[in-house]
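task queued by scheduler; priority normal; single chain, no ligands, no partner chains; default sampling; output format set to structure tokens
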Amino acid sequence: MHNDLGELAAFAMVAEERSFTRAAVRLGISQSALSHSMRGLEKRLGLQLLARTTRSVSPTAAGSTLLRELAPALERIERALAETRKQKETPSGRIRLIIPRTATKAVLLPKLARFTRDYPEIVLEVTSSNDPVDLVAGEYDAGVQLGEFIQRDMIAVRVTRELRLAVVGSPKYFESHSIPKHPQDLKDHACIGFRFSNGLYRWEFEKGRTSLTVSPQGPVSFDDPELVTQAVLDGVGIGTAMEDSLEGLIAKGRLVQVLKDWCPSFPGYFLYYPSRKNQPAALAALIACLRLD
């Protein structure tokens, strides 16, 4: 099929030029190679496509019939190839991006208006997911995820500064529950879980040389961090979220942060993608826009 497509394109060129010599020049091959290719095509089809004399070349009736169907198809292929080549040079086309909702609000949305103004020919298809994914299997061009969840064979570009998890409860909740001083105290509290598709996130704590994890035990878990925060605000129990996203609520006294000295910072979010080779201009533009200055 690969050879047929090349030979069919060569046949169309010969028919258009009515000359093997001129067609060979346009195709960048020798006249003898072109003649051999046409004889091979005719042999496989069992039909003569080109009538040849020492002075001229023209399509036969069979060749003309083939050409009527072939010419529009070749034009469509050429347009598709031109559009594809354009994506290498000009930021255009679609980018399929998978990103956690928290990162969408913190990383993408603040820069989205400027990005769409600067690159009106790019269309972002954004999928929200907290789970680490295989970009290639999922047919995504890029993703944003916490550094610890990114596979080693990916190229990663930092898009946030270091982050920290905050453990919080509402003043209403702490009216009837003691404030935990140590992560082990959480066993006596209603803990609101955050859930990935493969299970609950285990709360990780570290202080000095001591590291430990706690499996949250409580009345409810969510796969959306905003719902965790809302349940905490409603006094359901203690929950966790990115400290940056809770700063305003903590400053206003709507949430009480606890175990702060047990919550170290971690690298934060990175934009990641499979390869630098033949990178589309649209993806390069998105990387440049989201990269942490």
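post-processing summary
- The chain is about 40% helix and 25% strand.
- The longest helix spans residues 61-89.
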